[in-house]
Structures are given as structure tokens and as C-alpha cells.
Amino acid sequence: MNSRNPVEIVKDAVDKVTERVTPDIPGAPSGDPPSLAEPTGPREPLPPKSDQAAPDTVSPTGAPTGAPTGVNAQQDAFLTTSQGVRLHDTDHSLKAGERGPTLLQDHHLREKIMHFDHERIPERVVHARGAGAHGEFVGYGNAAKICKAGFLREGATTPVFVRFSTVLGSRGSADTVRDTRGFATKFYTDEGTFDLVGNNIPVFFIQDGIKFPDVIHAAKPHPDREIPQAQSAHDTFWDFVSLHTEATHHVLWNMSDRGIPRSYRTMEGFGVHTFRLVNDAGETSLVKFHWKPKLGVHSLVWEEAQLLNGFDPDFHRRDLYDAIESGAHPRWELGLQVFPDTPDQTFEGIDLLDATKIVPEELAPVRPVGLLTLTRNPTNFFAEVEQVAFHTGHLVPGIDVTDDPLLHARLFSYLDTQLTRLGGPNFTQIPINRPHAPVNDMLRDGFHQHAVHAGVAPYKPNSLDGGCPFHADAADKAFIEVPQRIAEATKVRRAAASFDDHFTQPRLFFRSLSPLEQDHVIRAFTFELAKCYEKTIKERELLVLARVDARLCAEVAAGLGLPVPEAQDLRDVPTSPALSQFGHTWPVDGRVVGIVVDADDADGLAGVRAAISALGEAGVTPLIIASRGGDLPHGLAAQRTFATARSVEFDAVLLAAAPSPAPDALPVRAAVDPRVELLVAEAYRHAKVIGAWGGGTALAEAEPGVVVADDPSDVVQDVLTLLAGHRVWARLEPLRA
Predict the structure, then answer these.
(1) For the residues 31-44, what does the mean pLDDT come to?
(2) Which of 1, 12, 27, 521 has its CA 20 to 30 A from that of 50?
(3) For the residues 349-371, what does the mean pLDDT come to?
(4) Contact 62, 437 (CB under 8 A)
């Protein structure tokens, strides 16, 4: 006979049910739940959470130390100075008596305040707002015919660190602004570090790096008022791009849905430039790099982006870290567009050295050559995400640059940036930047030198150090620049004539979008230009749009209340279906679904368990939304309340109830809590999938993308099928009429 307390038996049963049907909800700040009272007994520092990883422990010169990654974290159970001296008090300054003046001899106060005063380093001029994670890249091996880089070999597994970012905003700006995103990947290969420093848009505003200060000065906040922050909807930006029409193609991409991605996990990446690859035989090819997300390309709608900037300005960062923590590891395939290495470096009439041009995938398919998976979050944001330093000149044997004038300027710019931000020439010795290949560089001393160099001869040739280090050759996997013939030429400050076509490709991009996506571009132009003060700038940009597409120009002009410019001679161009985000289905793992429940309806909550189980099997994270937080019947728990939930957080919404107004609702005369009604209305307006059963059917009507059934499991299956298409696009079609 079981002698256990019946209450304990019931509790164990509930715990087992909860363990089975309720997945861990990401976002816990620590790997060990805190105690209610302040801990006082000494204990060693807590280990990182299971989703976190620190940089590998290699020496400043790239040698594996064999030490666990935790050696770079805090040690010992007691508070110490930076020199390891244990402290008995960090709450009070050393004073001359309890009410006396503070003494100059308080070395702990001086150290603590001094370090606090210098905790911040200069933020990046661009890409200041970012998020990053650790992972691995596995080569498929099918690139061997064109590239000898070891990390592309079949089965080769290379540690990576990836940083995503916005371009224009400061570190404190919001995530979901309309902007270009950075997609920078550091490959820690055994042949040296390779940095693929790209964007989520395949073209750039300018063709020559000498114009980079101009476009950034124009796009940044106005220098007199330091506003607007993290956006291009202002006069100086549109003044510049309406005059500098080589920016037109990038502007079209930025005004499209690509400018407001749903998640870093559903964002494409591009190397932007054309690179030169070399195989073992010394043969060369020209390529463009692509990152293709396994979840598909997906964006926010404009109202969602605006709501998120206030509701959760950290949305993209949180989404990335929560997905990794919950095991929905983000994945991208690295793909190559391959072109013959011809003397003119063009393909099908497209200049491959012009960073404002793409090669449509229909002309040169993207060939997958490896898989990137992000598996671990940073242990310390500053040490890793903030101090990681990328450089387009970090190349490995098999990958070389071309004559792209924008790329050449970046080869200079990135080093200058790191010297200023990270305090000197030894930024490569910061743990997150250390190569995983042996280093013997003859570089010495300087600010923040961590290596303890031996020998007396950091020069070549030498005999005092036995001639070391020695030159390597191709057989030793040396990096050797591709020998290129440089034609006899005159020094000029000009661009090739092929750089002068600023409108064919913007027209190709716009015409390749679906009608609904075109509507989004039109609304984006209308919104941004309406924010400009000067009428002249609006009129000038309309003249630019008139050279791209007649409908685009006419509808933006109508929205601005301005006359439509005279139609331009627009020649017909082909379309590229690969440029549209619509018309595909994708995996749903890592998506977030909100479930509205009535906290006091125990019978209604019984069906929620089945829904949670079905969602968990699909790799989807369910969040229960109730009138109050905490524990609910049937071993469930509410992760959101009506006061803290908003539809923008969810990819789909399930309705298990139509709950009456909670005590904290504003005074209303309604049967349903108004915040729930708002959540459902926004989800519907943003073309999200909605499912309902039981009492929740009172809030759902038979509409496109609204699933109503008696069985919660049936509802979930139909919702997941629709969710694979990202949104219920048909619901937005009538808006175009």
C-alpha cells in the first residue's frame, strides 16, 4: 500500500503531465532559479546556461590551450579586486569616521569607479546595434572544383561566430526599424580566419567606397538635432539619394519588405561584392556569396514594425536568443553564384564589379556549398558581440578579392575602425577575435598586448632566431594573391561606362515583386517622403521613381499630393521570380504561438494541454496568455497576461476562450476583455493565422486563415499547415482593390 501523502501523489502526476506537454519557455536569465531571500553562503560562480558558449580558449597566438572555456569567466566564490585580492565590503567607501570625508587612500573605490567610467568603448559608426551567436559551418564538399579553401571540404566542421545588425541606429536604437541589416560571419578555420562581411540586401547605395562617408552622413540623424534616430525618413537621406541615383536600386530593396525582416532567422544574407575563388590547380572563378535561411525569407508588415519599436524594441535580438535557447537552432545554407573569370569581369552584360547590381538567380543559380547552424548564445554580450571585429581583408587560401572599388575601400576602412574602437593594433588578441590557426606575425608591443613574445628577432631575414618565421609556399597553404594582368592605363577618377545604368535593375526588382509586395514598396516610399520637410526633395525623388516604374511613381505622387512627373521612356526588362518572398512554404520550427485562455475555466483549460503537445511536436513554442500570470489548473502556467501580450510577438494566435474583462482592464461595457479583442484584431489585420475551439470560437469567424473546429489538435494541425506560408496573404488582397 502506498504510504505517500495523496497531495504528493497528485502533485507528482501533475508534474509529469506538465513535463510532457509544456516545453521549457526560453528567456530565463540564469541557469539556476533564484532564491527568494538573498543568498549569503559562499558558492562558486554559476556555470553558463546550457544554450551559452564562450570563445574557444586559444592563446593570443592561436594555439589551443586545452583549457575549458570557463577559465575566462569569473573564478572563486569571493569578491576580489582586479588583482585577486579578496574584499570584505563593496558597499561603503573608506571614510574618516561614519560621517567623515572619503579618504584618498581607498584603492578599491578608485579601481571600481575608474573601471565603471571606462566600461564603454566607442560604438561602431555603422552597425552599432547588433546581436550575435556561436555556431558551426559544415562543408558539403561540392565546391572543391572551384575553391581550395579547407572549410568547404566535405564534412569539414568549422566554428563560427555570426553578428547581425542594423546600419543606421545607435546601440540603444530599436531592432525593427526599416534599415539594411548586417550579416557578418567569422569562420575560425585551421588555415586562418575568414570573415564574410555582408548584408541582408545584395546591393549597396554606392559603387565606390570614397562615397561611403557621404551616404552615411546623409542617412544618420541630422547633425543639428541628432534626430531622427535609426531611420531614413528624413530630408538629408532623400536629398542625397535623389541626387545620387546610383543608390536607386538599394533604395528599392530597402523600401520593400526586405527592409523590415520578421527575424534574423528568416533573413537572407549576401556578400554584396564579387569575389575570386581559386582551386588546387590555380584555376579561378568569380562568385557571389549567398546565405539562404532554411525557414525561408519572411518580413514584418509595416504596422507590426511600428508597434514592435515600442512594445519590444529588442524583438530581433530576443527572437534569436530565445530560438537558440529553446533548441530551434537557426540555419542557413551558404550558396555560390559562379561566373567565368573573364578579363572584363562581366556576366550576361552585368558588370560584376558594380556593387549596385545583382545577377538574377535565373541566369546564375545559387549552388549550396555548406550549412551554417547557430547553436550557442554568447556568455557575455560585451566580450563577444560588442568586441568582435570583422574585416573584409581576413581571407584564406582559395578566396581572393576582385577590382570592385567599394570592396577595395572596405579593405582600408575596417582596420581603421578596429584601431579606434578597440584601443590599438592588438584587437585580434581579444578572445572572440583570436584565430584558431597558429600565429607568428612579427607584430610586437602596442596597446593591450596579451602575447608574451619570445625571441629577439621580429624581423626578416634573421639568424638570431634561427631564421624563424619562414615564408610558406602554395604547398604549405600560403595565401598567394591571384596574379592578374593590369592593362596599361592612365590614372583617373572615373568609373567604367557600365556603372552609369542606375535604373534597369531597380525596374527589374520592382517588376519581379508580387502586386501586394509592390503595394508595400509604394506605401514605404510614401511614408518616408511624407516625413521630409522640403517639397523640392519629394519632387526630385518622384523624378527618380518616374525612371523606375510608372505605377510606383504615380501612386507615391498621389499619396504625397504632388503632380505626377512626365512619364519616362521605360524599356521592358525581364523579371526574376526569386526576388519575391511570396508563394513558398517553409518549416515552422522556432515559431511562437500565443494561446488565449480563461484562467478560471478549468474545463476549457483541459483542451489546451493537447494543443501544447501538438505544437511542441512541431518544434513551435507555445505561450499561454491569461488574465493573470503564474500557475493555472491542469499543471499549466501563464507566460503572458492580457496586459503584457501583443499580437506582434506571435506568428499565430489560438483562442481557447473568449475571457471576460479582467480586474485590471480599463472600464468597459463589453463581454470580452478589450485587450484580447485588440490582440485578435491586430493578428487578423496583419494576416496571421488564427485558430479557435470551445469558447474561443466566439471571437472567430469563417475568414481566410481562420481555423475553427471542436478538437484542439485538429485546429493546431490546420494552423501549422497555414503557418508554413508565413502569413495568410489572401486576406490582404482585397486591400489592393
Answers:
(1) 85
(2) 12
(3) 97
(4) yes
Is residue 421 annotated as involved in ligand binding? yes
Strand partners, 622: 593
Query: What domains can be seen in the chain, in order of their start residue?
Result: 130-433 (2.40.180.10), 503-579 (1.20.1370.20), 592-736 (3.40.50.880)
With pLDDT > 90 as the criterion, what percentage of the chain qualifies? 68
Return the C-alpha cell found at 678: 485588440
Sign of CA dihedral 447, 450, 456, 459: negative
414 marked ligand binding residue: yes
Q: How far apart are CA 38 and CA 94, in angstroms?
A: 25
The CB density around residue 248, as the number of other CB atoms within 10 Å, is 24
Tell me what the pLDDT averaged over the chain comes to: 91
Per the DSSP assignment, residues forming a β-bridge with 160 are 135, 187
Rounded CA-CA distance 252/248 in Å is 6
Looking up cell 575601400, which residue turns up?
409
DSSP H helical ranges for 48-185: 107-117
At position 14, the amino acid (one-letter code) is V
Residue 16 confidence (pLDDT): 47
Report the interhelical angle of 550-560 vs 535-545 (nearest 10°).
Answer: 160
Determine if the peptide bond prior to 60 is cis (ω within 30°): no
Grid cell listed for 177: 526599424
CA 288 – CA 298 distance, rounded (Å): 22
- C-alpha 471/C-alpha 467 separation (Å) is 10
Phi and psi dihedrals of 389, rounded to 5?
A: -125, 115
Give the CA-trace dihedral at 561, 566, 567, 568, to 10 degrees: -130
Q: Can you tell me the distance from the alpha carbon of 582 to that of 733, in angstroms, rounded to the nearest whole number?
A: 13
CA–CA distance, 472 with 536 (Å, rounded to integer): 60
Do 290 and 269 touch, CB atoms closer than 8 A?
A: yes
- Please tell me the least confidently modeled range out of 53-67, 260-274, 474-488, 604-618: 474-488
Strand 621-626 and strand 630-632: pairing?
unpaired
- The reply, when asked if residue 212 is annotated as ligand binding, is yes
Residue 234 dihedral angles phi and psi, to the nearest 5°: -160, 170
User: CA-based angle 53:150:268, to the nearest 5?
Assistant: 60
> Angle formed by the axes of helices 712-723 and 602-617, to 10°?
40
Distance CA 442, CA 273 (A): 31
Highest mean pLDDT among 51-65, 161-175, 424-438: 161-175
The torsion region of residue 349 among left (phi > 0), alpha (psi -120 to 50) and beta comes to: left
pLDDT of residue 9 exceeding 50: no
Residue 163, annotated as binding a ligand: yes
Q: Is 547 annotated as a binding residue?
A: no
Which grid coordinates are listed for 664?
485590471
CB half-sphere exposure, 199, CA atoms < 13 A: 21
Catalytic residues: 127, 199
> Per-residue pLDDT tens for 215-258?
999 999 998 889 999 999 999 999 999 999 999 999 999 999 99
Sheet of 706-708: strands edge to edge? 640-641, 621-626, 592-596, 652-655, 689-692, 706-708
In angstroms, the CA 206 to CA 408 distance is 13
> Which are the contacts of 674, defined by CB distance < 8 A and separation ≥ 6?
661, 665, 666, 668
> What is the pLDDT at residue 12?
54
114-166 pLDDT, tens per residue? 777 888 889 999 999 999 999 999 999 999 999 999 999 999 999 999 999 99
The three three-digit cell numbers of residue 465, written as one number: 632566431
